[in-house]
Each structure stands twice: as structure tokens, then as C-alpha cells.
Recover the amino acids of this structure.
């Protein structure tokens, strides 16, 4: 059997699926129509599946070969983002302020194409293939944890997934041993002083001025409080304070994110944030609240299977090159799967051939659709090669 040729034959269908989903995106935890679309594809293929896995819109389908073997899981996410699509393309999002600005539509199209090819070869396959369609990757607490608790990994020996990557060369595969993405969590804080007249600052406690001091000091945590060999990022993403020109603000609200590859380092950063807030607010007789919003743990590939995937990539017809890649400070809830079973999260380069490559979560994000064949062939190739180990 030549599964790679069979995937190439359904590329047009894969592209049509991706474009349909791109035009009809749904936000995390709201993907009702997307889940119904996926379920309809499995009905048409005659592949058994479960819906509402994990209490949300998760779907788990299974293709069981005629021969005994191992259980391999493949995962694709399918939620979109609250971003207005600004691309000038025929398949532009038809939903205001919602778009697939991260490639999840492509991931879903790839997994459905893999399912079709697996079904075609069911009589000659060994083992079982668990096809996990996961909602809500973009929005903590995410969809992975609930699906795992509902049993989507029960009996699974290994799991593979890929992420189309718009900034890497199209058709190339990128993988890392150990951590490939960071533990990602968010925080918010409120500084409360005492409002007053802009012409009499001595009668007030200026929350904006205190915020500026706090933000400046927070940037020193990574630079001066952490081990230089422990990579981490602390970024402020939002600040809201004040109402008009001549009123000293009583409150300031600050939001930010912390990224690290080690949860111990992440926890240290939060202790330092609290210490900075406490000291600055105490010195000014101000109050504060501080809340950590727990995010995803780091995505840590199994070293053995990362090397296995790297070797498999060399045998895939659509792969133009394969590379080891440095870890990134981006978060992904695939981390939860890898905490339960060994596996690999890898990147499939999908830089657009024409025009500027926009990063993920950008209003003009897009990718080279031909990379879907690269990713699908690599995922299926890894699943089949694992059965032969």
C-alpha cells in the first residue's frame, strides 16, 4: 500500500475542508458547528466515533486494523481566535471578529484526510489509530485536560501531533528533543491608591505612577533575579487606568504573561512579582490584588520518539527537509497528553510562497496549504512506522 500517494490524491479535498472551516470559524468552547461538520465526515467514511468527549465538543474516532498491533493517537485542534480576518482571499472568514489565525483549520483537514486513508487500508493495517479532534486549545483551561480525563488516551501507547508554522520554510519538518514549548500562564493585578486633582498630586496616591514603577521593576525579575541559564519571559500585555486629563487615577489594572520551560522557574517568577508589588505599594501606602491564572505546562517531547520522528521525516515524499529546532516560549495544551503518554509535538513549515509571512495570531495570518500534505504524510508515516517497531 502507498498511503503517501493516497494522501496526495485527496489533497484537493483536504484543501476544500480547510477553506470551509476557515470561512466558518468558532471560538473556544463554542465550536458546535465545527464538531458537527467533523462528525458528518466520519459518518460519510463509516468510521466509528464518540462526540462530546470531555463534556465539550471533543470528538474521538477510531480506525482498527485487521492485524494486532499497538495503539497510536493523532491529535488535531479546531478552535479559532477572536481576531478580525483581514486577508483578501476568497476563503476569508465570514464571521465578524473570529478567524482561524493559527492553522487549526488545517490541522483538522489533515486529520480527516488521514482518517480517510486509514479507512481505505483498514483490512491490511496493524494496530489501532485513535483520532483526537480537540476543541478549545487557545483558551485555558483548554480542551485537552477534560478529554484526557474522559478517557481519550486510555490504552494509547504513543501520541503524535504537528502544528503548521507560517514562519518556517514550507514543506520542512522541525522537531526538538525535550521541551519544545513553554509553560504558559497569565496574571492580573490591580493597584489601588487614592484619586485626586491633577493639580494637587500630594493629596492623592497615584495608581498610574505606581504602575509605571511596578512595570519597570517587573522587567528586572528575569534579568536580575533568575539564573541566566533558566530561560523565561515576563511580558505586560495590557494596562487600564484613568479617565481624563486632570484626575489622578485611583486604580490601575495590569495584565501579563509568564513563560518558562521549568515550572519551578515559573513559580519563582510569581513569588518575585508578588514581592515587587508588596514593596512598592507598601512604600506608597497603596493596596493591591494579584492573581495568577494557571496555564499550560511545558510541552516536553520524549527524546526517543523525537529522534524516531526525525528519522521518519527523511522517508516522507512531501518533506523537503528536516531539522532540529530550538524551544519556543509559546504555550500549547498538547503538554497534557505528553504528561500521560510518550509522544512528539513537531512543527510543519508552512511559510506562504507569495507575499509576506504573518505570524500566528495576526489578523492577516495564512499558510501555504501544500504544507498540509507534508504534515499529514509525516503524521501518518510516524503512526505506521511505530507499528513496525
Amino acid at each position: 500500500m502507498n498511503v503517501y500517494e493516497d494522501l496526495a490524491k485527496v489533497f484537493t479535498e483536504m484543501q476544500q475542508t480547510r477553506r470551509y472551516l476557515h470561512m466558518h470559524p468558532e471560538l473556544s468552547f463554542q465550536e458546535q458547528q465545527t464538531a458537527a461538520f467533523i462528525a458528518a465526515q466520519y459518518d460519510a467514511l463509516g468510521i466509528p466515533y464518540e462526540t462530546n468527549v470531555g463534556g465539550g465538543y471533543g470528538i474521538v474516532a477510531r480506525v482498527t486494523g485487521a492485524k494486532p498491533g499497538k495503539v497510536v493517537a493523532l491529535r488535531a485542534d479546531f478552535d479559532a481566535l477572536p481576531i478580525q480576518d483581514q486577508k483578501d482571499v476568497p476563503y476569508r472568514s465570514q464571521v465578524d471578529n473570529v478567524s482561524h489565525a493559527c492553522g487549526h483549520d488545517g490541522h483538522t483537514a489533515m486529520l480527516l484526510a488521514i482518517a480517510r486513508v486509514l479507512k481505505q487500508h483498514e483490512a491490511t493495517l496493524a494496530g489501532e489509530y485513535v483520532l483526537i479532534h480537540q476543541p478549545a486549545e487557545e483558551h485555558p483551561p483548554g480542551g485537552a485536560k477534560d478529554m484526557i480525563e474522559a478517557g481519550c488516551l486510555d490504552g494509547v501507547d504513543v501520541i503524535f501531533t504537528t502544528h503548521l508554522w507560517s514562519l518556517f520554510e514550507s514543506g520542512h519538518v522541525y522537531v526538538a528533543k525535550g521541551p519544545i514549548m513553554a509553560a504558559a500562564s497569565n496574571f492580573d493585578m490591580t493597584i489601588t491608591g487614592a484619586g485626586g486633582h491633577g493639580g494637587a498630586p500630594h493629596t492623592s496616591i497615584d495608581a498610574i505612577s505606581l504602575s509605571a514603577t511596578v512595570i519597570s521593576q517587573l522587567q528586572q525579575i528575569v534579568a536580575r533575579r533568575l539564573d541566566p541559564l533558566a530561560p523565561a519571559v515576563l511580558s505586560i500585555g495590557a494596562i487600564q487606568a484613568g479617565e481624563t486629563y486632570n484626575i489622578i487615577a485611583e486604580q490601575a489594572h495590569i495584565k501579563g504573561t509568564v513563560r518558562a520551560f521549568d515550572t519551578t522557574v515559573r513559580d519563582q517568577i510569581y513569588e518575585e512579582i508578588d514581592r515587587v508589588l508588596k514593596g512598592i505599594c507598601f512604600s506608597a501606602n497603596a493596596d493591591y490584588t494579584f492573581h495568577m491564572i494557571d496555564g499550560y505546562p511545558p510541552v516536553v517531547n520524549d527524546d526517543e520518539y523525537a529522534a524516531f520522528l526525525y528519522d521518519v521525516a527523511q522517508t516522507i515524499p512531501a518533506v523537503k527537509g528536516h531539522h532540529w529546532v530550538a524551544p519556543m516560549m509559546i504555550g500549547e495544551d498538547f503538554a497534557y497528553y505528553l504528561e500521560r503518554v510518550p509522544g512528539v509535538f513537531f512543527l510543519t513549515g508552512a511559510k506562504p510562497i507569495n507575499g509576506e509571512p504573518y505570524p500566528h495570531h495576526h489578523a492577516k495570518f495564512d499558510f501555504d496549504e501544500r504544507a498540509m500534505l507534508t504534515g499529514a504524510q509525516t503524521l501518518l508515516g510516524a503512526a505506521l512506522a511505530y507499528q513496525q517497531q
